[in-house]
Automatic annotation (TrEMBL):
Name of the featured protein: Response regulatory domain-containing protein
One GO MF term attached to the UniProt entry: identical protein binding
Record GO cellular component, one term: cytosol
Region described as Disordered: 125-151
Pfam families: Response_reg
Main location: cytoplasm
Compartments where found: Cytoplasm
Cell inner membrane is among the record's keywords: no
Lipoprotein keyword on record: no
Superkingdom of the organism of origin: Bacteria
Amino acid sequence: MLRAMSAPAAPCVLVVEHESAIADTVLYALRSGGYQVRHCLLGREALAQARAGGIDVVVLDVGLPDLGGFEACRELRRFSQVPVIFLTARNDEIDRVLGLELGADDDMAKPFSLRELVARMRSRAGSGTARSRSRSTATAAASTTATPHWT
């Protein structure tokens, strides 16, 4: 008896960004790149979604209004090893190093190239294998920048 093979589910990206112009553009780019996308505005909401599972990569803004991105990453690392890419308006080396030391896998300074973000997503999300690295799942454009314009 033959069974039809179904295609693997597209990797799921959780975008945590409170600036709507940036969030809308990132969401569009990732959806166009074939990703499933979830979006939230606050760090605490992101942690709840990550605990619920099914996330392959987190794109996390450093400057969130409730719980900063650094603190959200620190909390996330207590229960998950899902890859984290920071988005930050901070360009100081110390901030990039701090983010990496807190457990981020990558860092992109705003404004950033959407093509580069999608390429970094591909290297982090793969084909959905990051979900298996999450401890919580069992329990619970080269010159295009992230602005409202597409070129």
